[in-house]
Amino acid sequence: MYGTYLRRELIGRRKQTIIVAAGLAIAIALVIIVNALSAGVRDAQTEALSSVYGVGTDLTVSGAATEPGEGRGGAGFDFGGSDGETRDGTTTLNQSRLMADMMRGTLEASSVDDVASLDGVAAASGALSLTNTTFSGEMPDRSAAGGEPGSMGAPPTGGADGAGGSSFDIASFTVLGIDPGSASIGPLSSVTVTEGRVLESADAGTDVAMVDATYAATNDLAVGGTIEVAGTNMEIVGIVSSASSDADTAANVYLPLDVAQELAGVGDVVSTVYVQAASAADITAVQSEISEALPDASVSTQSELASTVSGSLSSASSLITNLGTWLSIIVLVVALALAVLFTISGVSRRTREFGTLKAIGWSNNRVVGQVAGESVVQGLLGGVVGLALGLAGIAVINIIQPTISSAPAATEAGGPLGGGPGGAGMGGGAGFGQAAAPAADVVLTAPITIWVLVAAVGIAVGGGLVAGAFGGWRAARLSPAEALRSVA
After folding, report:
1. What H or E segment, with its residue span, contains residue 15?
2. Strand partners, 85
3. Each residue of 345-378: pLDDT tens digit?
4. DSSP 8-state assignment for residue 250
5. φ, ψ of residue 72 in degrees (nearest 5)
6. Where exactly are the structural domains of the chain?
7. Dihedral (C-alpha) 467, 468, 469, 472: value to the nearest 10 degrees?
8. Which of 66, 80, 99, 340 is most buried, by the most CB atoms less than 10 A from its CB?
9. pLDDT tens, 243-280?
10. 56 near 185, Cβ under 8 Å?
């Protein structure tokens, strides 16, 4: 009896049912899509950071940034009269330099052991970020223009098109010196070996290298071949790629730490110390301990590092978190208000019906149950439709897979993020081609979260209950006498 009457009333008031269910459906679909996008941005941010931060790495320690002219970067190019090969009055030059970022401070290598000995630290590993820059080109003999015979001095100011009587090219790639015996923490913990092998403890002091797979493919490099770093040929023993298909590795080339230090001529230093805490609860305490032990260093946790990610990724995160969340709340409130208003309005138009039902013996509880049942069914219909619309929206996003970019914030250009694969910018001072932190393209997806789907349907049903409660309360206040008067 109850079900039959409920079905007849919903069908007879089809317009109200559609409007209430549609409003709730749009609100539910928006909530589902916004939450899925928010989860997708968080995943994208994790992917953007994982390759340079390292799986299992909880903190990074880096040297404080230095003022211009105070850095410890490698020397610039210095061409003497005996350099290059001269033919027909033109000297062909080719020189490589492995240089540290002049704006980035370094730490003594002993800092790694100091950090590792602290309470709450499970492991620590050091790395040295460098840039290998190669100058190659031709210079005319300038002795006829008043210079010293055979003297070439600094690189010419002309461009690659030969302006000024010279033509030259500057090419660079990023190099990361790592502890070959520590692959479980730091950048290497988030890469996989696609060919060859990873650097091992026995490789310390030897001229061997691992190369990023993308860089190797671009430059026709393979295991067993060589790559020139600072004028020294390094045997390629492994090709690596990021463990995530949507993130780059931390550098183009990986060398044993001691070899990188020697080639760069920077001494026994590191640019970053990667730290793994014994437990997540120890991270804050470990950060304080490191700051006390190394007062001149910069200590960052993974969450702090994530907050420095800028570019489209940060903009998308802010947009979804702020605009998307508030928009979802507003739409939910509006949909709920509409459901309550339509239910109360429907009760007002059904005065004769409810008054008559009460006159023939319906109790207040039965009248409230009737109105609440209709509203709950409308909410359930809205939840199901909203669920379908939300899943369809997620499917569209995952099919399109929009690409957004992420880059470390400008203030962190020499910080723990370091450089990655890609072209290097022109550095100031005497050095050429100091590495710029690259923007990485990240594919945005919208993962499905089960609890969000369940909560969305629950919100729709809850909205129906609220609307039914208001409408039922209004209906229960009607009296048979009022109904009879309205009939007349």
Report:
1. helix 14-53
2. 92
3. 777 677 677 777 777 777 777 777 777 788 888 8
4. S
5. -110, 25
6. 2-47+314-402+444-487, 65-295
7. 130
8. 99
9. 765 555 678 999 999 999 999 888 899 988 989 888 87
10. yes
